[in-house]
Write a structure and sequence with these properties.
The complex is a heterodimer of chains A (132) and B (126). By secondary structure, chain A is an all-alpha fold. Chain A contains five helices and no strands. Chain B is mostly helical and 126 residues long. Chain B has a single domain, classed as 3 helical TM bundles of succinate and fumarate reductases. Helices cover 79% and strands 0% of the residues of chain B. Chain B has four helices and no strands. Classes of the chains: A mainly alpha (132), B mainly alpha (126). Chains A and B meet through helix 2, helix 3, helix 4 and helix 5 of A and helix 1, helix 2, helix 3 and helix 4 of B.
Amino acid sequence: MGNGTSIGRVRGLGSAHEGAHHWLVQRFTAIGNLVLMLFLAISLALLPSYDYGTVTGWASQTLPATALALLIVSVFWHARLGLQVLIEDYVHDAGTKFGVLVLLNLATIGGAAFGIVSIARLALAPVSGGAA
Amino acid sequence: MANRPMAPHLQVWKWGPHMAVSILHRITGDGMALVGLAVLLWWLGAMAGGPAAYGLFQDVMGSPVGLIVLVGLSWAFFTHMMSGLRHFVLDIGAGYELDTNKTWSILSPVLGILLTAGFWALVLLR
């Protein structure tokens, strides 16, 4: 079934039926995660306090909100790809695997949407006192 | 499945640092995917929800168990980051010589722990 030749593997006839695109997107999102997670970690470490006003005041600014929204996309995409590999390695029954991958898609896309909507609510909320 | 010879697996090979760093990469990555993303979404949802929702998040995450989770997640992040950077080097075809490979397999998780300690030092000494 095409396992023996390079062109067969490129055409996705190996045991996983695909691969290069998954592998590349895992790397692209890894670079996104690296930049955006370091931005988040450094920003949080430098905040003067973690009370509600300080943290939301930071997160609702345009630049941090943009970074957080991009982080959600990158990190959920990366996690979806990583968990997919975990499932493919340990769930061998084809029907169960299909079902678990469906649940994975629902959870990661739903989770990412919830995160982005939360960030949007913060960023687009009317500016209250003190944020001027 | 057909009763064919299986590839030697974790129980067969003698453990080495390169195997440990590989399985550590999977454990920290999938651990963050399952626990870390839930905490991230709770944090964002609590901020969007208002001071009361944020207060609950802060109380839980500030408790001893919550702090263990946060320290664990930060360790998982920095460890996964270091082994991920190691993967980028291996992806370009470098670092496969036995001694080089062993050195970075040991150094990646050690640097992950040092970065975790540095991060919390920065947070606590602000």
